């Protein structure tokens, strides 16, 4: 302990102010805890600053630019359409600024103490927060670790001026003429789509047999078709070997079908996954148990192997989703406050903001089969929905998985415009144990995309109205 470093007492200390950390801090404070939150970067974490939010702003702008050039069939003839990418970046940053400023206001409004610096555990009930000038010790009753993750850097692709991660891609000041994306997961597919809309010539190199491996093939097929129509080249079973930067570009070497090939681009975006930020907290010295890949082992209450230290978000097993982190945050805060709470991921949705959007919740058909569940799939097409027709966007479907024995809803997949919003109702239905009849009897406004949930439920009951 440094001279003059008198420990500050707090009930709960939260490390990290992303969608896991700031939610945990607010909920713990609402439940009567004296809370301190520590953040070494910007409030809002990766999600609000260089992840979910800015990427969706960029995607929205790219979609508008692409759409306005393809509206002749609607009778909308746009001449002289131009792109001012600096204005796109200004819009993106304005969205980020509003949300991060809102997080600070919410924390202060809930009387959470905000501390800037890096945290390092001293023992089970104390840690030190350090910045460039000083160090301060905090004694706590409980701690919640929500430090998030960072992009994985692969061999021979050292991040620099031309080899960039998702943060670098979001902060580009120009639209690349040619962009190579290494990794066809949700980040690579979303950003690849955005820059293709802006006019980039995009090549995606994916090591697996298909892109978007977390979704069923029948869901990803329309996405791949849409990408190809935009001129995106998708190379699967491709091993990225090296990237050589020049002053004005980068040469990427990869191997596919047993042959080594090269491709030149302005930038190469590496999106092959993320690594948990658990390596500089002093957790090993405390005896915290780890699972695979540097993830922290936790129980159903988000509790680590040390009873008063909790971990949530990207640093624990499961999908690295912002809403998963926020959900776990509330559970951890409630447990600390003495409530009987634990995680249940059955209603956890996964969304990819490609074109069309992909969303799923609950079991997939394969997962249901693996669990020994007998299910039936009921699908309703966007092409039969009045609202989708009026939007001139009829690609996709809503699919429900229901148990054969009693029609209970156990899974849902949505492909198409608005999928990210439609999935919430289906997640609620699964979480609440509803069956197909419950959905079919729920009156849905017309004409809306949401009607397709009702239509698919009627199909599950063998009583479809608007499809055979």
From TrEMBL:
NAD(+) binds at residues 183-190, 206, 273. The gene is pdhD. This is Dihydrolipoyl dehydrogenase. GO terms for biological process: 2-oxoglutarate metabolic process. PANTHER family: DIHYDROLIPOYL DEHYDROGENASE (PTHR22912:SF160), DISULFIDE OXIDOREDUCTASE (PTHR22912). Disulfide bonds join 47-52. The active site is a redox-active disulfide bond. NCBIfam families: lipoamide_DH (TIGR01350). Residues 348-456 form the Pyridine nucleotide-disulphide oxidoreductase dimerisation domain. Binds 1 FAD per subunit. It is a peripheral membrane protein. InterPro entries: Class-I_Pyr_Nuc-Dis_Oxidored, FAD/NAD-bd_sf, FAD/NAD-binding_dom, FAD/NAD-linked_Rdtase_dimer_sf, Lipoamide_DH, Pyr_nuc-diS_OxRdtase, Pyr_nucl-diS_OxRdtase_dimer, Pyr_OxRdtase_I_AS. SUPFAM superfamilies: FAD/NAD(P)-binding domain (SSF51905), FAD/NAD-linked reductases, dimerisation (C-terminal) domain (SSF55424). It comes from Staphylococcus arlettae. PROSITE patterns: PYRIDINE_REDOX_1 (PS00076). It comes from the Bacteria. It catalyses: N(6)-[(R)-dihydrolipoyl]-L-lysyl-[protein] + NAD(+) = N(6)-[(R)-lipoyl]-L-lysyl-[protein] + NADH + H(+). The keyword Manganese does not apply. GO terms for molecular function: dihydrolipoyl dehydrogenase (NADH) activity; flavin adenine dinucleotide binding. The active site is at 446 (proton acceptor). Keywords: Cytoplasm, Disulfide bond, FAD, Flavoprotein, NAD, Nucleotide-binding, Oxidoreductase, Pyruvate, Redox-active center. Pfam families: Pyr_redox_2, Pyr_redox_dim. Its EC number is 1.8.1.4.
């Amino acid at each position: 302990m440094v001279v003059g470093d008198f420990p500050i007492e707090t009930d709960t200390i939260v490390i990290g102010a992303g969608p896991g950390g700031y939610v945990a801090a607010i909920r713990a404070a609402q439940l009567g805890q004296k809370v301190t939150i520590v953040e070494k970067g910007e409030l809002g974490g990766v999600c609000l600053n260089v992840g979910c939010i800015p990427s969706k702003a960029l995607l929205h702008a790219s979609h508008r630019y692409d759409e306005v050039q393809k509206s002749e069939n609607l009778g909308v003839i746009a001449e002289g359409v131009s792109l001012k990418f600096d204005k796109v970046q200004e819009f993106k940053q304005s969205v980020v600024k509003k949300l991060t400023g809102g997080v600070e206001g919410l924390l202060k409004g809930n009387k959470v103490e905000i501390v800037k610096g890096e945290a390092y555990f001293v023992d089970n009930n104390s840690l030190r927060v350090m910045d460039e000038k000083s160090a301060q010790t905090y004694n706590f009753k409980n701690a919640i670790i929500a430090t998030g993750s960072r992009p994985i850097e692969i061999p021979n692709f050292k991040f620099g001026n031309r080899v960039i991660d998702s943060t670098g891609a979001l902060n580009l000041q120009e639209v690349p003429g040619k962009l190579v994306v290494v990794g066809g997961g949700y980040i690579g597919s979303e950003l690849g789509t955005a820059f293709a809309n802006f006019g980039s010539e995009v090549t995606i190199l994916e090591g697996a047999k298909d892109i978007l491996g977390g979704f069923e093939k029948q869901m990803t097929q329309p996405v791949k078709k849409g990408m190809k129509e935009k001129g995106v080249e998708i190379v699967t079973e491709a091993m990225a070997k090296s990237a050589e930067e020049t002053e004005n570009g980068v040469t990427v070497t990869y191997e596919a079908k047993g042959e080594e090939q090269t491709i030149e681009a302005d930038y190469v975006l590496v999106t092959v996954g993320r690594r948990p930020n658990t390596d500089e907290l002093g957790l090993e010295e405390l005896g915290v148990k780890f699972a695979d890949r540097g993830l922290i082992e936790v129980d159903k209450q988000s509790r680590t192997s040390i009873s008063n230290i909790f971990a949530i978000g990207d640093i624990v097993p499961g999908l690295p989703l912002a809403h998963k982190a926020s959900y776990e945050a509330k559970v951890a805060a409630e447990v600390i406050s003495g409530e009987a709470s634990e995680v249940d991921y059955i209603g956890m949705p996964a969304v990819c903001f490609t074109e069309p959007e992909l969303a799923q919740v609950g079991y997939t058909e394969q997962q249901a089969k693996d669990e020994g569940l007998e299910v039936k799939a009921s699908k309703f097409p966007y092409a039969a929905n009045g609202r989708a027709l009026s939007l001139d966007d009829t690609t996709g479907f809503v699919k429900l998985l229901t148990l054969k024995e009693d029609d209970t809803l156990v899974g849902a997949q949505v492909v198409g415009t608005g999928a990210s919003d439609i999935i919430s109702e289906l997640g609620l239905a699964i979480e609440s144990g509803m069956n197909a009849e419950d959905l079919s009897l729920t009156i849905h406004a017309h004409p809306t995309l949401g009607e397709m949930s009702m239509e698919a439920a009627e199909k599950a009951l063998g009583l479809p109205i608007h499809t055979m």
